[in-house]
Specification:
Elements (H helix, E strand, L loop, with lengths): L1 H17 L17 H30 L6 E4 L4 E7 L3 E5 L5 E5 L3 E5 L2 H6 L1
Antiparallel strand pairs: 1-2, 1-5, 2-3, 3-4
Length: about 120
């Protein structure tokens, strides 16, 4: 349907004395119409890949900003610990009774939710 409308616009421009259609370049007959598939592919990729990634990135950023002392977290390396201290760019984790580890905030993969809290919801 879009191609029919573009052809009609191109034909109308030729009939008004322009000599060339609005949609054709000096070297080609199809002009902008040949770029239409590439534009459509870019738009589809934007909605299928880039938009969901941005959404996940915003959710992760919110989770990292909401971390508090006593929250249980998992690092990207699979280490599970409880937050002992939150600093500007890092977090100190309690691993065992006496073990502590300092990791960067962006190394936190997820926050663990207690099963008791899930059951009460």
């Amino acid at each position: 349907m879009l191609s029919i409308m573009l052809q009609a616009a191109n034909g109308a421009a030729e009939s008004t004395g322009g000599g060339r259609g609005l949609l054709s370049f000096a070297g080609g007959e199809r002009g902008l119409l040949s770029f239409l598939p590439f534009i459509l592919i870019i738009v589809v990729l934007w909605f299928l890949m880039i938009m969901p990634q941005r959404k996940r990135q915003k959710e992760t950023q919110k989770m990292l900003e909401a971390l508090e002392v006593k929250d249980k977290v998992v690092t990207i390396g699979g280490i599970i610990g409880e937050i002992a201290k939150v600093k500007k760019d890092t977090i100190v984790l309690n691993l065992l009774k006496d073990g502590q580890m300092e990791v960067r905030k962006n190394a936190i993969a997820s926050k663990l939710v207690d099963e008791k809290q899930e059951e009460s919801k």
